[in-house]
Specification:
single chain, mainly alpha
Length: 79
């Protein structure tokens, strides 16, 4: 025998019925904290700041690649 039970309730009613804790206050605090951090770090999202960060990484990566190739070429001649 197969039986189907359909329950019509709100998420809040289901949470209380199942004995789950109410975390809405915690959620609101976390969202407020994330918004404050994003607002404080908005300058990092500015296009000129992003380009500075990317260029700094790019120059360092190019130098590391050049050194890697020099080592590889010098080791290839030894074999």
């Amino acid at each position: 025998m197969k039986m189907t039970v359909e329950v019509d309730c709100t998420p809040e009613e289901a949470r209380r019925f199942m004995g789950l804790p109410d975390v809405s206050t915690l959620n609101e605090a976390l969202v407020a904290e994330m918004q404050a951090r994003m607002t404080a770090n908005m300058s990092a999202l500015a296009p000129d700041e992003l380009m500075k960060n990317w260029m700094a990484f790019g120059a360092g990566a190019q130098e590391q690649f050049r050194k890697l190739m020099e080592v590889g070429l010098s080791n290839a001649g030894k074999g």
